[in-house]
Design goal:
By secondary structure, the chain is an alpha/beta fold. Helix content is 42%, strand content 16%.
């Protein structure tokens, strides 16, 4: 299905593509996200190398952080440019969940939006646009414990940990996380000592968020393929309790809505298979604010 002008507007703002979707647009977007310009021969060679690694799921040679980043970015972009994902081009990575939370619970108060944890430069750049267009933020910051050269080249990127945020208290208007908690110490599991890192994350979020500031999270229960309803209630209760303990107020949790047909800009660093086929299992949306 051809992308409409309105759909292309988001592609343009995120990827810097100002022409019809196609091979040249893919190249412009890839070079822009990776912060490098290549000759035709260099691009052809790099494209072949990265698509081969993605197809084989690895390489006979050690893969550097930069190569892994490039594979993720190129594979993600190909979803939009070549894999019949044009119908989804009007939304960013996981846009529907965050947009609906903002519409139902949030308020535009300006200020700075913070993304804690960024898989790729595509995720970082998509967040910048989401922060401005959905949250109404005046500026955006992305922080992650791993920073490729491409990430570091973005003016919004800060190398650091969510459990030790290098920001002043009450300086952030919006905090945004996406599938971050399961990367810490599995907060859905007992005993609670196993998720001390998550509790520290919640405390740091509570510290840096300013009064009237808001938190938007989409998080998943780790360690299982199938989730009972009781598992999800327990997970949501634990997360809610952690945020309240961290200094947040008015915490709302809900099963993450199935955005099939709503659209998103695919990021291949995450598994979106359940988005396309059925209601999502094991994923919750979380909104909180600081009074």
């Amino acid at each position: 299905m051809p992308a409409t002008p309105n759909q292309l507007s988001i592609v343009e703002s995120v990827l810097g593509v100002d022409r019809s979707i196609g091979p040249e647009g893919l190249r412009i977007a890839f070079e822009g996200l990776m912060g490098t310009k290549m000759t035709d021969a260099e691009y052809a060679s790099k494209y072949q190398e990265l698509t081969t690694i993605a197809r084989l799921g690895g390489s006979p040679f050690p893969i550097t952080q930069e190569t892994e980043e490039a594979v993720t970015v190129l594979d993600s972009l190909e979803d939009v440019f070549f894999r019949d994902e044009q119908r989804n081009a009007n939304n960013l990575v996981d846009w529907p969940s965050y947009q609906s939370m903002m519409e139902e619970h949030g308020r535009k108060i300006g200020g700075t939006a913070l993304l804690i944890g960024s898989i790729s430069t595509l995720s970082s750049r998509a967040f910048e646009v989401l922060a401005a267009e959905v949250y109404g933020a005046d500026s955006a910051i992305v922080i992650d414990i791993v920073g490729s050269d491409a990430k570091k080249a973005q003016g919004t990127f800060v190398l650091g940990s969510g459990t030790e945020l290098p920001f002043a208290s009450e300086s952030i208007s919006y905090v945004h996380t996406n599938r971050l908690l399961h990367m810490l110490e599995e907060p859905g599991k007992i005993p609670t000592t196993k998720w001390s890192a998550a509790l520290q994350l919640f405390r740091e979020i509570g510290r840096v968020v300013k009064p009237e500031g808001q938190v938007f999270m989409q998080e998943t229960l780790p360690g299982q393929e199938r989730f009972r309803e009781a598992d999800m209630h327990r997970f949501a209760k634990i997360v809610r309790g952690g945020l309240l303990q961290g200094g947040l107020d008015d915490v709302v949790t809900r099963p993450s809505r199935d955005p099939v047909g709503m659209g998103y800009l695919s990021d291949r660093s995450r598994d979106f298979s359940t988005y396309r086929t059925q209601a999502m299992h094991g994923i919750i949306d979380v909104f909180a604010q600081k009074n």
